[in-house]
Backbone:
């Protein structure tokens, strides 16, 4: 019976093994058949995935290349910008040095502004790897800031020069008006001799300020020369006193009311009488009640007279300078004692000499 059971078991195992073999064979056959049937689709999918990976790689690589190229362009632009800034800064420095020479040549200028910094030592705008040198950029920025400061200092210096000239102009005009004269009286005449090719200046702030300062200086100089040619000086440098002012008075001889056309300055006999401004001697002779008299023409309708002289020291037509001796104090003509009769005349009419003497004192005190 046991044997019968073993006999029955063996066919079962064989059938199981055979079934398993058939299943594996069927699976292999199915897989092979599937592979044969869908090979193209599998290959196409595989190739599509590989293509997508390749495309993504190339896209990323292209973006990286573009980023690198952009960085190179930015570095090149930065380097070129630094080079342009350096060239501009050096040009500005040369221009500021030229302007400094102009400022220091201005007459009666204020204290000189700070000199431009010396030219920087040559330095490279690139580092050892050929990239823009950040330290060089900082040095360049420092140079630009220094040039800005120098330019501002020069502009301020010109402003001070112009302001100082304007103050002198105002003071000189005040002195001239104080003498009873209108400054416009002396603005006529032929223009100063000048010429040359036209070279326009740039319309920047420095050029405009320089032009304004130069105009103010020229006008102040013109007024200074004008004041120097007006009879504002003292006719007697030694001790003297006013014994009779300009205007109405009782005549010392007739005791009647009369016009005194000058200023009587009591002084020692023989004291030097001096020209109060440069001019040309128009009269040097005995002139009736004036006694020995010298008349000087100062131009612009202005003249002065020195009367009652003991001695005349000049001749008609002679050019005299301010302060030059024209005669000696005496008592010739209608005179009661040693003194100088001093007159100032405008367009032939006598005016009060005291106004000119006061204006001269203000001019000397202010030293414009």
Residues:
């Amino acid at each position: 019976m046991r044997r019968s059971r073993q006999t029955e078991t063996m066919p079962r195992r064989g059938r199981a093994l055979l079934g398993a073999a058939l299943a594996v064979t069927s699976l292999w056959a199915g897989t092979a058949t599937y592979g044969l049937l869908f090979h193209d689709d599998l290959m196409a999918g595989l190739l599509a995935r590989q293509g997508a990976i390749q495309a993504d790689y190339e896209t990323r690589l292209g973006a990286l290349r573009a980023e690198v190229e952009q960085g190179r362009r930015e570095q090149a632009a930065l380097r070129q910008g630094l080079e342009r800034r350096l060239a501009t800064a050096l040009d500005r420095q040369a221009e500021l040095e030229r302007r400094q020479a102009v400022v220091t040549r201005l007459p009666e200028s204020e204290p000189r502004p700070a000199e431009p910094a010396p030219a920087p030592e040559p330095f490279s705008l690139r580092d050892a790897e050929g990239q823009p040198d950040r330290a060089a950029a900082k040095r360049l920025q420092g140079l630009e800031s220094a040039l800005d400061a120098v330019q501002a200092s020069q502009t301020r210096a010109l402003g001070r020069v112009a302001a100082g000239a304007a103050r002198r102009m105002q003071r000189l005009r005040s002195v001239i008006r104080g003498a009873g004269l209108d400054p416009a009286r002396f603005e006529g005449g032929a223009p100063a001799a000048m010429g040359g090719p036209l070279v326009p200046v740039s319309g920047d702030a420095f050029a405009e300020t320089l032009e304004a300062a130069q105009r103010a200086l020229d006008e102040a100089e013109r007024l200074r020369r004008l004041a120097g040619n007006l009879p504002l000086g003292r006719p007697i440098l030694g001790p003297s006193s006013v014994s009779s002012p300009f205007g109405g008075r009782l005549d010392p001889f007739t005791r009647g009311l009369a016009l005194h056309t000058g200023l009587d300055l009591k002084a020692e006999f023989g004291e030097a009488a001096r020209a109060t401004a440069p001019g040309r001697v128009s009269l040097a002779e005995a002139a009736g009640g004036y006694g020995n008299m010298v008349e000087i023409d100062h131009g612009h309708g202005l003249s002065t007279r020195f009367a009652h002289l003991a001695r005349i020291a000049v001749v008609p037509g002679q050019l005299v300078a301010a302060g030059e001796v024209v005669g000696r104090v005496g008592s010739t003509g209608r005179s009661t004692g040693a003194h100088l009769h001093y007159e100032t005349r405008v367009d032939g009419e006598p005016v009060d000499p005291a106004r000119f003497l006061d204006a001269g004192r203000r001019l000397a005190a202010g030293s414009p």
Remarks:
- Residues 2-105 form the longest helix (104 residues).
